[in-house]
Amino acid sequence: MHEMALTESIVDIICEEARKQGFGKVRVVRLQVGAMAHVEPEALRFCFDAVSRGTVAEGATLDIRRPPGEAWCFDCGKTVAMEERFGACPDCGGRRVQMTSGDELRIDELEVD
């Protein structure tokens, strides 16, 4: 379950920002977890509840946005929807595609007190 290590990193980042910016409580953590990031949102929520205990993030709500997979196809010159990370272009079948969305994992915003 790599979600535990990911969650520990997220909480570390939040705690570091609390020290830098001087806030004492986090109410909402907005995350982007791409549909092809190989991260289970429910596992992330479960781990967040455990890892955030005793920190400024304890009790915060995780608001997880799931951007779909998209890629740029160099063969047909289009932005295409992707169902798998290393798949072929669904329009032309070309293999020269570069992911542009759907594999991200990042903190977008914190609501704090």
From TrEMBL:
GO MF entries: metallochaperone activity; nickel cation binding; zinc ion binding
Residues bound to Ni(2+): 2
Keywords of the record: Metal-binding, Nickel, Zinc
InterPro entries assigned: Hydgase_Ni_incorp_HypA/HybF_CS (IPR020538), HypA/HybF (IPR000688)
Pfam name, any one: HypA
GO biological processes: protein maturation
List of residues binding Zn(2+): 73, 76, 89, 92
Keyword Metal-binding among record annotations: yes
Protein purpose: Involved in the maturation of [NiFe] hydrogenases. Required for nickel insertion into the metal center of the hydrogenase.
Family listed: Belongs to the HypA/HybF family.
Record-given protein name: Hydrogenase maturation factor HypA
Organism of provenance: Methylocystis echinoides
Gene field: hypA2
